[in-house]
Amino acid sequence: MPAEDIQTTHYIFSKATGFYVGEVLGSAAQIAQNADWEVRLAPPEPVVSTDPSDYPLTPAQFGWLLAKSGLEDDTETVLTAAKASDRDLYAELKFNLSQNAFRFEVTMGLVAQMIALGALADTPAVSEATIGDLWLLAKDK
User: Fold this and answer.
1) Whole-model pTM?
2) For labeling, which of 17, 66, 119, 141 is most exposed (least CB within 10 Å)?
3) 3-state DSSP call for residue 23?
4) Among 43, 40, 61, which Cα is nearest to 52's?
5) DSSP character at residue 3
6) Measured between alpha carbons, how far is residue 13 from residues 25, 46, 55 in Å?
7) For the segment 41-71, what is each residue's pLDDT rounded down to a tens digit?
């Protein structure tokens, strides 16, 4: 069998966008007939997001984040204070802390709300960058 007829897996990328299209089994001659494709013999490199918003956390992962950041005690303090003074905030916090998945943007919204109410000190420990870094560690727990 001539080399150009050997069936091989080819990784197809769009020439127009550069995006990965998929895999095709065929000969080099067959694949070369499609002018819209760029053919490579290696799969694309995986793209790993560094945006914490792309990774919801489980309750266990979120618990790890609270413990690692030192916010576990702050969370309990805020809950106790809210329970005594602001039932709406308390109900919102309890609802959000009992979810099956924790979202970064919701968490940061609650942190901002607690800071604005004076229930949480605005320190580097509660900055978006610090919590974001811990979030990315927690997602792999």
Assistant:
1) 0.65
2) 17
3) strand
4) 61
5) G
6) 14, 14, 27
7) 666 677 789 999 999 999 999 999 999 988 8
CA 126-134-52 angle, 5° bins = 95
In sequence order, the 6+-apart residues with CB closer than 8 A to the CB of 57 are 65, 101, 102, 135, 138, 139
pLDDT band at residue 5 using 50, 70 and 90 as cut-offs = low
Q: Which of 42, 7, 43 is nearest to 26 (CA)?
A: 7
Hey, what amino acid is at 35? Answer: A
Q: Which residues contact 30 (CB under 8 A, 6 or more apart)?
A: none
**Token code pair at residue 130:** 């610090």
What six digits make up the tokens of 3?
A: 């080399």
